[in-house]
Amino acid sequence: MYKNRIEIIKKHLEVNIPTNVNNKNGIENELFNPIDTNFNVGELKLLIDSVEASKYKDATREFIKNHPKFKENFIGLNMESYRQLVLEQCVAIANSGLIHLTDIKNNLHRYAGAVEMFSYYNNNVCTKLGVHYTLFGGTIMFLGTSRHEKYIEDANTLKTMGCFAMTEIGHGSNVRGIETTAHYDKQTKEFIIHSPTPTSEKFWIGGSYLHATYTTVFANLIIDGTNHGVHAFVVPLRCAKSGSIMNGIHIKDCGHKLGLNGIDNGQIRFTQVRIPRENLLNKYSDVSEDGIYKSQFNTPIKNFAATMAPFIVGRMAITKGCSGAAKTSLSIAIEFSHLRKQFGPTPNNELPLITLSSQQRRLMAPLARTILFDLYIQRLTNELCQPKLPASIHAHCSGIKAVYSWFCVGALQTCREACGGQGYRSANRIAEFKNDCDIVCTYEGDNTVLMQQLAKYLLGLKKKPTTANRIYLDGDDAKSLLFNFANIHQLFETREDIRLAELKQIISNSKESAYSAFNNAIPWAVKLGFAHMTKIVFQNSVDTLKTKNVKPLAHLVMLDALVSIEEDLGWFVSNHLISPNVAQAIPFLIQDLCSEVTKVSKQIIASFDIPENCKPESKDLISDLF
Ligand SMILES: Cc1cc2nc3c(=O)[nH]c(=O)nc-3n(C[C@H](O)[C@H](O)[C@H](O)COP(=O)(O)OP(=O)(O)OC[C@H]3O[C@@H](n4cnc5c(N)ncnc54)[C@H](O)[C@@H]3O)c2cc1C
């Protein structure tokens, strides 16, 4: 076994172009060559920024660099001052014209591009923007009709601020279980919004404790004792002129949190709050003055599904928070690793941390994945801008939100550790990102729940397994077998097929109810979701390469593909897709690619074009101490 391994190491270190690789488009050839260190950083920047969003991102970068509110310190502020600063930053953004409340419907590239840039700086700002623009604005825009357009003008300049009240103390993921009621009163032509139990109080409502003028409330629409299910209503929380809290509204602070302490999350109790009939967001369903309920759908569950559908835009937008945090943190850790010296061949010749194989491995792999996730999100954003959305859009927005946020939390931890003790200092920023991004795994749909939505979509496709193309990668020349995009694609495709068949079988073998059968299979559903997302992110990267072969994308794609395989290596080997020989070579190939990418890591992070005030004061993370 060890003899074999040494042979493999020798082979993969040889730079030769093997003959048995399917190299029709020639891109794989690059993988056998060193990366040209003189590549065009501007080209890479445009690729990562996207042609559609590039000008909006540049304008936002300039704004962040120059606006005085983005030069103020936020580290260590108490909650009150932090919330005030974030509010002022959001007002400055709203007044700058960089984004508009209607963007999520009419110019998604502008909105998403700006949010990504603000998340270079801090996730509080983009969370506060997200609550107002995508959640409040999204419900108005996608669930409302012309009678709700009156909210747009003032909300656009943040003269009035909106929040989004869906979650209750008793119900988070299971939105259909919420208890808040909206009884229709025919006499006064009003809805009465009420929290009937302690567990029905809205909780975690971002922006509600201090700043929001309005909220969209999700509540059970009830007419003459008949519950028509969950609908959305606009409810004023505060007087738009005086700011005083409206009658029947009680708001408490959710208190100090693990992160995002610049956001004023609140707990809201409604006591018989009367709102006009017109405040029902009536795109799909309406109630006439005399209390007749009409819906475009014949069942409450279909109406519910339509009511929830607009939040896919928010899920895509939220990945921008992960993207910015990961790119800034990776940049900090990589710059630090180029400067910080520890150990060396002699006591007088200490070398930068970046020369350590472990440092290269832990930083280059997430660097590659961040870029490839970003390319995939560009694709999703383009899909979201189409007049007719693809059937896959909901599942894929859910899937990328889950895999990107899980990945981001891990990557930020890696960046923190890669900077040693200095990574722990709040002034050096990574700690702040780490705490703030943690919650992305939970809000706007808990990741485990979202992965099930993706799995259910895949189960519904009735896709036939492509067993005819099943491959077994075996042989002495692992490099040739693996540096082949068709082979990698086939590995990912087959894994998805097997995972799908396995999930179907677990469910169909179950003698229990449909609910329990699926419940018992959730871990497999999550694995299927991962298999699918890995495949489509990889496929999108290869498609991008074919049209825009920007350096060093080919190396990044292969590095991430091999890391993905390594993450599930036992599975690939035990399912006879990769031989033990080939499997043993993978960590070495990864290390080679990490070392290659390290050579251009400074150029790659330069392509992110992160404004300096988004980073720590000193690149070595210590100069500010003297
Ligand atoms: C900082 C912050 C800001 C927020 N902002 C807002 C806001 O502005 N407006 C708003 O309406 N809400 C907001 N939320 C609420 C957020 O959307 C919910 O926390 C989220 O939907 C999860 O609900 P939950 O907390 O009740 O967890 P639960 O649903 O109770 O989940 C707890 C655990 O059980 C697991 N679980 C639950 N159901 C399933 C299932 N079917 N299958 C497998 N596992 C499951 C989950 O994975 C999770 O690990 C915010 C939350 C936080 C923390």
UniProtKB/TrEMBL annotation:
Give me the residues that bind FAD, please.
167, 206
Instruction: Please report the stretch or stretches of sequence annotated as the Acyl-CoA oxidase C-terminal domain.
Output: 489-611
Q: Which GO terms describe its cellular component?
A: peroxisome
Query: What is its subcellular localisation?
Result: Peroxisome
Task: Report domain Acyl-CoA oxidase C-alpha1 positions.
Answer: 312-459
Q: Which residues form the Acyl-CoA oxidase/dehydrogenase middle domain?
A: 163-273
Pfam families for the chain: ACOX (PF01756), ACOX_C_alpha1 (PF22924), Acyl-CoA_dh_M (PF02770)
Q: Which GO terms describe its biological process?
A: fatty acid beta-oxidation using acyl-CoA oxidase; lipid homeostasis
Q: What cofactor does this chain's UniProt record say it requires?
A: FAD
Transferase found in the keyword field:
no
Keywords from the named record: FAD, Fatty acid metabolism, Flavoprotein, Lipid metabolism, Oxidoreductase, Peroxisome
Q: What is its main location?
A: other
Report the active site residues. Answer: 444 (proton acceptor)
InterPro entries membership:
ACOX_C_alpha1, Acyl-CoA_Oxase/DH_mid-dom, Acyl-CoA_Oxase/DH_mid-dom_sf, Acyl-CoA_oxidase, Acyl-CoA_oxidase_C, AcylCo_DH-like_C, AcylCoA_DH/oxidase_NM_dom_sf
Q: Which GO terms describe its molecular function?
A: acyl-CoA oxidase activity; FAD binding; fatty acid binding
Its transmembrane ranges are none
Member of which family? Belongs to the acyl-CoA oxidase family.
Q: Which PANTHER family does this one have?
A: ACYL-COENZYME A OXIDASE (PTHR10909:SF377), ELECTRON TRANSPORT OXIDOREDUCTASE (PTHR10909)
Q: What is this protein called?
A: Acyl-coenzyme A oxidase
Q: Tell me the organism.
A: Dictyostelium firmibasis
